[in-house]
Amino acid sequence: MCYRVGIEIPTVEVRFEHLNVETEVYLGSRALPTIFNSFANIVEGSLNYLRMLPTRKKRMHILNDVSGIIKPCRMTLLLGPPGSGKTTLLLALAGKLPNNLEYSGRVTYNGHEMNEFVPQRTAAYISQHDLHLAEMTVRETLSFSARCQGTGARYEMLAELLRREKAAGIKPDPDLDVFMKAASVGGQETSVITDYILKVLGLEACADTMLGDELLRGVSGGQKKRVTTGEMLVGSAKVLLMDEISTGLDSSTTFQIMNSLKQCICILNGTAFISLLQPVPETYDLFDDIILLSDGHIVYQGPRGHVLEFFESMGFKCPERKGVADFLQEVTSRKD
């Protein structure tokens, strides 16, 4: 739609080079969250600070010299067994690593270092947990998020799109035309973006329904996951870093969410890096690229269509009736 009138939507390419993340942890029974361990950790930490007792913590490497590229306008799937470092990698790319983790390496957005801009304005980390106010409707939630984050240049882009389409004699999208006319009153930029994202994510039917929780009836689990994604889409973030968003959902709902997200990425020229645990073949086929993690190392990175050929060259052949995602999970597991 934008290319017909000469509007080029900006894109963001994320690169990470020689990324290392490590920390110091207790092993065995000392790692359990008990009252005795908490008291012992406080005493031992004080003695360590005074150099009266050597630390008993062991150094653990979470990510080991990983490098890669997340390309724009494409869906990249992050696979790996539990404990392989998927969440840590997503947090590192979003600039949200906890202070207790030691970090080294280089992460760039279109060639710019993390200290040259505010990464939280460009990238959005979406957790697997849905945290919402149960009494607010879907539309109110997205509108509040848009007002807090700001819509960036997206509103101006939609206005310029309609102007150029009318000048070129191209019939504009009727829904978008109505939205922009409603916003002409002034101060309605966030309303336009909210309605636009509601349409893209297929949330128009439940836009005025309360989200709900365990005590209040509301939208379904799949719709709530779309709201979690929509909260970030209404802002100015161009990069979506999504961590295990299929938790608690059935395969059909996960496929619908991924399908809606793929359409949104294609329309808005976004960048998506998504971690899933054993997606079904239909959901797996929606992705363009694959990054496979194992014990903090990248085993494979590249197009989805070449992954089986790569592992066959290494001597691992996928059985005929086994899903590719399940095979990739097993080939990196020591038990399998």
TrEMBL record:
Entry keyword annotation includes Metal-binding: no
Family matches, as Pfam families: ABC2_membrane_7, ABC_tran
Entry membrane topology: Multi-pass membrane protein
Record's protein name: ABC transporter domain-containing protein
Stored InterPro entries: AAA+_ATPase, ABC_transporter-like_ATP-bd, ABCG_dom, ABCG_PDR_1, P-loop_NTPase
Keywords for the protein's UniProt record, in alphabetical order: ATP-binding, Membrane, Nucleotide-binding, Repeat, Transmembrane, Transmembrane helix, Transport
PANTHER family named among the record's database cross-references: ATP-BINDING CASSETTE TRANSPORTER
Compartments reported by the entry: Membrane
Alphabetized CDD domains for the sequence: ABCG_PDR_domain1
Family named by the database record: Belongs to the ABC transporter superfamily. ABCG family. PDR (TC 3.A.1.205) subfamily.
GO molecular function terms listed in the Swiss-Prot or TrEMBL record: ABC-type transporter activity; ATP binding; ATP hydrolysis activity
Residue span(s) of domain ABC transporter: 47-320
Gene3D superfamilies: P-loop containing nucleotide triphosphate hydrolases
Record carries keyword Transport: yes
GO cellular component entries: membrane
